[in-house]
Amino acid sequence: MTLGDYPVVSLLQAREQQFVTRKKLTTGIDPMAEWKAIAKVRQKEIQDQRRQFERSFEKIAHEWWAWWSVASRRSMQPR
């Protein structure tokens, strides 16, 4: 288990995190399992955001395609 890289996480922060982690272990909580559960939730949130973006992009693309096909049809009609 890592607590972070040195310049980003100070020695004091690492010691505090180590104390919290050790306390969780003594109470029977597995910090790695907890961390993995949090990571899983974050990953799901990211996937949901991507799906939302893709759906909105798809909607805009369909609207543009409908507009463009009507506009191009008019310009391609023989006069």
In round numbers, the mean pLDDT is 87
Estimate what percentage of residues fall within beta strands: under 5%
Question: What would you call the shape?
Answer: rod-shaped
Spatial separation of the terminal alpha carbons = 73 Å
Main sheet, how many strands, which sense, barrel?
Answer: none
Q: Low-confidence parts, pLDDT < 50 over ≥5 residues?
A: none
| Helical content class | over 70%
> Whole-number radius of gyration?
26 Å
> How would you spell out the order of helices and strands?
HH
Helix tally?
2
Tally of extended strands?
Answer: 0
The chain-level structural class is mainly alpha
Tally of individual domains: 1
Give a written overview of the molecule.
There is one protein chain. The chain has two helices and no strands. With 79 residues, the protein is mostly helical. It has one domain. The protein starts with 10 loop residues before the first helix and ends with a helix.
Q: What are the SSEs and their pairings?
A:
Blueprint: H1 11-26, H2 31-76
Task: Give structural attributes.
78% helix, 2 helices, mainly alpha, rod-shaped, 79 residues, 0% strand
Concise synopsis of the structure shown:
The chain has 79 residues and is mainly α.
